[in-house]
Amino acid sequence: MEVMNKILSGSDATNRRLEFPAGSLWAFPMPDGRNSVEFVASDIHEQQWRLKVSVRNEGRYSKPWLKGEWGDYVRQKQLRKGDRVILTMNDEENGERIYRISAERMLFGFWYSIDEQQ
């Protein structure tokens, strides 16, 4: 199930955090009193990335962010503004959630996997 499909902004690609779509928070239930959830997402090469979704405690809007090893992921995949990142989630029969992350770049009007080029 797709959790997030986002075209990266300049700050997403250069900062150590990604502005996470608020509409995707449903996939990360946060225990009462907490403002973040850590999870692991695997890429196509089965490399695991430790990530964290955080929301601010104050203010009118939750303003979620994706942090953790996001900056490392950006550097390894050489992501830039305009690339697309897709995060998916599958609920296993044992109740465990499996997350996958992938990146794509548009070339000549078509999206191509960045992971498959590495």
UniProtKB/TrEMBL annotation:
Establish whether keyword Transcription regulation is in the entry.
yes
Primary localization: nucleus
Keywords noted in UniProt: DNA-binding, Nucleus, Transcription, Transcription regulation
Q: Origin, by domain of life?
A: Eukaryota
Q: Kindly list the places in or outside the cell where this protein is found, as annotated in its UniProt entry.
A: Nucleus
Name used for this protein in its record? TF-B3 domain-containing protein
Cell inner membrane among keywords: no
